[in-house]
Design goal:
Strand 7 and strand 8 form a beta hairpin. By secondary structure, the protein is α/β, with parallel strands linked by helices. It contains 6 helices and 12 strands. The structure holds glutamine. The site of glutamine has 11 residues, from helix 4.
Length: 224
C-alpha cells in the first residue's frame, strides 16, 4: 500500500484554505506549509493567489527561495495561481519584480484594467488529451504576454492563454479554488502522482535524494 499523496499549500498569505479544501475533495492530503523544512514532507506544492509583492517578501524573509528551487529541481510539481503564477514566471512587468523564474512566461500584473478587476468566465482546457470546460474566476489577474518554446498552453479564454505547463510547473492566471469545479486541482494531483511514481522508479522507495540534499550542504544551492 503506498502512502496517500500529500500536497502542500504555501500558507504565508492569500487564499490557501480554499486550495486545501479543493485538494481534499480530490482525495489527497493537503498540508499547510509555513516553513521551508515542511517541503521535505510533501509531494507537490500549490502557491496560491494573494499579493505577489507581499508573498515575495515573505518568501525571502522565511528563506523559502533555495528550498523551493531544490523542490523544483527534484521534479516535485508546483502549481501557481494568479499571484502564485507571478512568482513562478520568468519575467514580470507592471511593475517589474523579481521571481523564482521556474516557467518561461512573461506576465503583466493587474492587466485587465480597473473596469474588469474581477470577473467570472468559462474557458476551455485540454487536460490529459481531452477538451474540458473550466470555470474561471479572475481577480486583479495577470495576463500572459509571452509563452516560451518549452511551455504548453493548457487553457485559453478568448483565445488568450490562461493556464500553462512547463515540465513539473503548472500555472493559471485565474482562481480555480473559488469555484465548485475541481477539474484543475484534479489535473495537478495527477501530475503529482505521476511525478512521485517517476521518482520512486528512478531512486527506489522514499525520499533518499531529498534527505541527502538536506544533510549535505554541498548538494544544495545549485538548483536554479
Ligand atoms: N494582483 C495581484 C498581484 O499582482 C494578484 C492577484 C491575485 O492573486 N488574485 O500580485
Amino acid at each position: 500500500m503506498t502512502d496517500p499523496l500529500r500536497i502542500g499549500v504555501l500558507a504565508l498569505q492569500g487564499d490557501f484554505a480554499l486550495h486545501a479544501r479543493a485538494l481534499a475533495r480530490c482525495g489527497v492530503e493537503p498540508v499547510e506549509v509555513r516553513k521551508p523544512a515542511q517541503l521535505a514532507d510533501v509531494d507537490g506544492l500549490v502557491i496560491p493567489g494573494g499579493e505577489s509583492t507581499t508573498l515575495l517578501h515573505l518568501l525571502s524573509t522565511w528563506e523559502f527561495v533555495p528550498a523551493l528551487e531544490r523542490f523544483h529541481a527534484e521534479g516535485r510539481p508546483v502549481f501557481g495561481t494568479c499571484a502564485g503564477l507571478i512568482l513562478l514566471a520568468r519575467e514580470v512587468t507592471s511593475p517589474a519584480q523579481s521571481s523564482l523564474a521556474l516557467i518561461d512566461l512573461a506576465v503583466e500584473r493587474n492587466a485587465y484594467g480597473r473596469q474588469r478587476e474581477s470577473f467570472e468566465a468559462r474557458g476551455e482546457a485540454v487536460l490529459g488529451g481531452r477538451r474540458v470546460p473550466v470555470e474561471m474566476v479572475f481577480i486583479r489577474a495577470p495576463r500572459i504576454r509571452r509563452v516560451g518554446p518549452g511551455v504548453e498552453v493548457l487553457a485559453r479564454r478568448d483565445d488568450e492563454p490562461v493556464m500553462a505547463r512547463q515540465g513539473s510547473v503548472l500555472v493559471a492566471t485565474f482562481h480555480p479554488e473559488l469555484t465548485a469545479d475541481v477539474t484543475v486541482h484534479a489535473h495537478f494531483c495527477e501530475m503529482v502522482r505521476r511525478a512521485r511514481e517517476g521518482r520512486a522508479a528512478a531512486g527506489g522507495p522514499g525520499d533518499a535524494g531529498h534527505e541527502r540534499a538536506e544533510l549535505d550542504p554541498a548538494a544544495r544551492g545549485g538548483a536554479a
